[in-house]
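User: I would dearly like some help making sense of a protein record. This is the protein in question:
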Amino acid sequence: MTDIETIDFPLKEARRLTRDLMKPDPVIYWSDFLITILIGWGAFIYIYQATALSIASFAAFLVSVFALYRAVIFTHEISHFKKGKFRLFRLAWNLFAGMPLMAPSFMYQGVHNEHHARDIYGTREDGEYLPFAKESRLKIVGYMFLIFILPAFFLIRFAVLAPLSWLIPAVRNFVWARASSLTIDLTYKRPSESRRDDPTWKLQELGSTLYCWAAVFLMTFDLLSIKLFLLWYAVVTVIFLLNSLRTLAAHKYRNPGDQKMTVPEQFLDSVDIPGHKLITGLWAPVGLRYHATHHLFPNMPYHSLGKAHRRLVTDLSDNRLYLDAKRDSLWHALKVLWNEAN
């Protein structure tokens, strides 16, 4: 896919302009995550304890969804942490977000790193990419309908398949290959364990399973009501809805799957939606509204992406190609993708 435009992309200049923005700030990570997760579970508990549906309960539901969505999206940052860094943060995130929401960090780490690899991005080996713009619109529709069954899938994966896999090697191999990845490609098979994978994944799997069975035990003995399960399922379903829409808007999905792409080509196949800081930040939290810029600088912390974007817009000697990745809104990005699909 290399052409004169991508050859002319000012990548070296962009890196020079942003090289001082690569250091993550632990205070920002901890304060953002802890405040967000407290709000999310606090609103969840409020709804659970409410005796009847009300405007206040509905408002609390929205607060819980958006807060827990923001909290769980930190898995994206975790996948880019340098090996051995932020260990306590990773542990806290898994205990309070990843495990109770059935999305521990090992489900994303490794898989997401492949998505950034030059020889994998956009190809059939990339589990986070499908050529939506080159195929039928029915694939987009089908992808969105998955949100209703995904919470059940992850519950079964950790409550049933995980314990079975500890006893039966064949099940273990199947679960790792076909049920241990947060991807959009249902045919994706996760490769054997590699250095990119989280070495604590077995403990994370055990923890998620214990969460499942603790909830089953408490509901069985009427210590918690079935309302807990229904509320959890509703919250997670809406989180999947938000994330699925965000995912569709994150790339242009124009690579048919048989071509390797350079870093500039990855950028130009991705999308930035700066939008409104608060509104856009609700559906594309933790820096993901700058998804194209993230593909230029995968290891840049989320709290620096906005500054990097503004700097590149104003300071690049020629910003035309950089601005080519911009979309005006979520609706604009989805509309373009829909119109390009068959």
